[in-house]
């Protein structure tokens, strides 16, 4: 479980880094769409936010969101493998 959490956290950081890198390319629309849920979350809590602190909050929220979904996927895969092992016995 600890290993899955570490992989999920590193994956969340990597996904956020990749999307930030894609913002300055021709895939700007795709990257902006992937970063949009965290922007909505930050703006919902502070509607008049335009400082560096808000940008850092957006990156942190995006990392947590991707970490959560990667962790859910890894736990699901582990559960399926455990169920397959149990059924094979």
Note the main attributes of this structure:
89 residues, mainly alpha, elongated
Characterize the structure shown.
With about 90 residues, the protein is an all-alpha fold. It contains 3 helices and no strands. Helix 1 (about 1-20) packs across helix 2 (about 30-45). The longest helix is centred in the C-terminal third of the chain and has 37 residues, at about 50-89. The radius of gyration is 17 Å and the shape is elongated.
Helix/strand layout:
Elements: H1 2-22, H2 28-45, H3 52-88
* SS field, number of helical segments: 3
Strand content: under 5%
Shape: elongated
* Average of the residue pLDDT scores: 85
How helix-rich are the residues, as a percent range?
over 70%
Please give a quick description of this structure.
The protein is mainly alpha-helical and 89 residues long. The protein contains three helices and no strands. The model has no long low-confidence stretch (mean pLDDT 85).
């Amino acid at each position: 479980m600890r290993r899955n959490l570490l992989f999920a956290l590193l994956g969340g950081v990597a996904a956020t880094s990749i999307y930030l890198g894609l913002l300055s390319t021709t895939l700007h629309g795709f990257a902006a769409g992937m970063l949009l849920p965290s922007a909505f979350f930050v703006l919902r809590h502070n509607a008049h936010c335009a400082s560096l602190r808000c940008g850092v909050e957006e990156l942190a929220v995006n990392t947590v969101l991707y970490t959560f979904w990667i962790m859910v996927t890894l736990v699901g895969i582990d559960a399926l493998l455990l169920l397959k092992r149990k059924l094979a016995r």
